[in-house]
Amino acid sequence: xxxxxxxxxxxxxxxxxxxxxxxxxxxxxxxxxxxxxxxxxxxxxxxxxxxxxxxxxxxxxxxxxxxxxxxxxxxxxxxxxxxxxxxxxxxxxxxxxxxxxxxxxxxxxxxxxxxxxxxxxxxxxxxxxxxxxxxxxxxxxxxxxxxxxxxxxxxxxxxxxxxxxxxxxxxxxxxxxxxxxxxxxxxxxxxxxxxxxxxxxxxxxxxxxxxx
Length: 212
Prior knowledge:
The chain has about 210 residues and is mainly beta. It has one helix and 13 strands. It has one helix spanning about 185-195; strands at about 5-20, 25-35, 40-50, 55-70, 70-80, 85-100, 100-110, 115-125, 125, 130-145, 155-165, 175-185, 200-210. It has a twelve-stranded antiparallel barrel with strand order 1-2-3-4-5-6-7-8-10-11-12-13. The longest helix is centred in the last third of the chain and has 9 residues, at about 185-195. It is globular. It starts with 6 loop residues before the first strand and ends with a strand. The model has no long low-confidence stretch (mean pLDDT about 90).
């Protein structure tokens, strides 16, 4: 019998404390959806906070349509809250499981004044046991134009990579430890250096992965 019921899912993929030389801060990366098998409303939100203030934060809202097994096309909006002035983008992308079970998100953006951007994220889960898993993850951001107010330069702007090892107390709840690397490039790197900000480095993390 066909099943077209409405379901929902929320994943806190990263809810963690990051330690750096100047202190530490909270980071989150969350995604979720509500809908049926082929048509869903998706959201994503991620950001950082530390020293009593919000460092950077953004949110996505998408309509997603399943176009193949394991793959969705998404269309919607991205809202940047920090750093700098708030900015809105139109967004279109694909997300799903690539060959060899890589989880991939590729999204393109169009902002006011002809601004363009793109983001590619990929992660993988390497299972050691039924409960112990290692999760490598990478993210690359690119921008078509410089935006001095937001500290962004044209071209490849930033690269993030991480390794997190978790132990699933239950499938829905898993504490983890890990290490991440962040790098800025080109004009973005020069803008950050001129402003006295960090241009990259290593961070140790501890957090929880949970879903419901």
